[in-house]
Amino acid sequence: MFDCAIVGTGAAGVSAALTLKSLNKNFVWLGDENLSGKICRAEKIRNYPGLNNVDGEGMRTAFLQQIRDMSIAITPARINGIYQMGDYFSLLSDKTEYDAKTVILAIGVEAVKPAEGELEFVGRGVSYCATCDGFLYKGKTIAVVCTAKQFEHEIEYLASLAGKVYLVPLYKGVQVNAKNVEIVSGLLTKINGTMRVQSVTIGDRQLEVDGVFMLKSAVVPSVLVAGLNTKDGHVVVERDMSTNLKGLFAAGDCTGRPYQYAKAVGEGNVAAHSVVEFLGQS
Ligand SMILES: Cc1cc2nc3c(=O)[nH]c(=O)nc-3n(C[C@H](O)[C@H](O)[C@H](O)COP(=O)(O)OP(=O)(O)OC[C@H]3O[C@@H](n4cnc5c(N)ncnc54)[C@H](O)[C@@H]3O)c2cc1C
User: Staple 141 to which of 88, 132, 148, 164, CB 3.0 to 4.6 Å?
Assistant: First the structure.
């Protein structure tokens, strides 16, 4: 049982981890050892105190150095579900369950908007986790929307189970080794059905499918955490970064605009302090 689980390795997660470490808390930090794809994308950052005219890659290098110097470890994992279990939280990845008394959600925002019908059919044909739900589609026809190369092993896993896979890649240089995968160009704009998913609309094509897998680096917060209050896709937070779920805090882009490093770092810091205060009271 950890004092806290930080989910996400962007600027907000980095700040929360540095603060919890300096306050001597026992936490697990779940995400990507390379931090966040977004951190390194900025051409020039002019408004981040202390790092003059740095670019995104320079900022990532500085963050990684600081994490190493503080002996903070990142546990590589994508979390597929977070559940409140009374006075603690259970966080599920493809392979492992992590239990923590508190959670800091620092998952950023996904640039790709949910398709029409996506949220409506979650659990009724729409899934975000290949290893959790892939077995349900043995021999069946599925569509897979994939936003990044890093998820290609999940596509191959799904192809090993399904009869037919329509792959909608949102990145270049697809390398998937499976004969039953058909690459479909265009955007998946709509998921159709009545009780369950029956078809998808991709460009001007309507394809009959039994299920849809959305392989994205960030999942809509209300899908990731059951019962979490959100507004316009962002987590609703108080000034101390607490959410409607006791013990669950959020920080960074996932709490809303402006999407900025300095805001993410500030909120990560506040969330970590609020976690410490919460643990002291419980
Ligand atoms: C091209 C570009 C240029 C930018 N330029 C600037 C700039 O000049 N100045 C500025 O201030 N801001 C800039 N930004 C914005 C800045 O990058 C973001 O505000 C900042 O990265 C937000 O940090 P974050 O930690 O909230 O989210 P992110 O950096 O998005 O990090 C979220 C992390 O959570 C991980 N994650 C998500 N879901 C899960 C899950 N279920 N399980 C595990 N991990 C998960 C993601 O993989 C990622 O590592 C720019 C953004 C872009 C895209």
Answer: 164
Q: Are 237 and 243 in contact (CB under 8 A)?
A: yes
Q: What is the pTM of this model?
A: 0.87
For 138-210, strand residue ranges (E) read 141-146, 164-169, 181-183, 188-193, 197-202, 205-208
| Cα 147 → chain centroid | 12
pLDDT, tens digit, 9 for 90 and up, residues 102-159: 999 999 987 777 899 998 998 899 998 888 889 999 999 999 999 888 889 999 999 9
C-alpha neighbours within 13 Å on the C-beta side of residue 230? 20
Cβ–Cβ < 8 Å for 84, 77: no
| Alpha-carbon span 123 to 129, nearest angstrom | 11
* Pocket lining: 30 vs ligand 1, CB cutoff 6 Å: yes
Nearest CA to ligand 1 atom 30: 108
